[in-house]
Amino acid sequence: MGRGVPPPSRPGPHPPHPDDHAAFADAAWWTGRVEESLTQRTRAHAGYAAAGAERRAGYTAWTLFHEHRLAGRSAVAAGWLRRARRHLRDQPECVERCCLSWVGTERAQERGAFDEAMETTDRMGTRANYRGNHARLVAVKRRYAPGNLFRLDHNIAP
Asked: Is the pTM here over 0.85, yes or no?
């Protein structure tokens, strides 16, 4: 490992937990050790994926997409984005899926499709605000307020 970044955990009978790798990836990133960060985050992703932790694997894959994109590695970044989408495809509305919406917003802005970007941003805000409760809240709204009488920012459409 590089200067100043300790190994993910002490040697012993148990391999490091994916959270250990993710924590060291964050530390390496914020101290400018980009390659160490990418290595540790890749290990974290492998651990989450092997454990079937799809949301964590999806978020970690999205983070790897973002970091590779910032490093100018667009082909590698595209591969990580595909993995993130695959991990999160069957997940309910969740904060991790906001990251994918963010990518959609950026791409719409780049094309000049500002209305599409705003719609994507609104969906992202709704997901972040209501987390995993969105589907349940839609059902409640359909039953008790089908005319959409109670409207606020980040409205839940009936």
From this structure: no
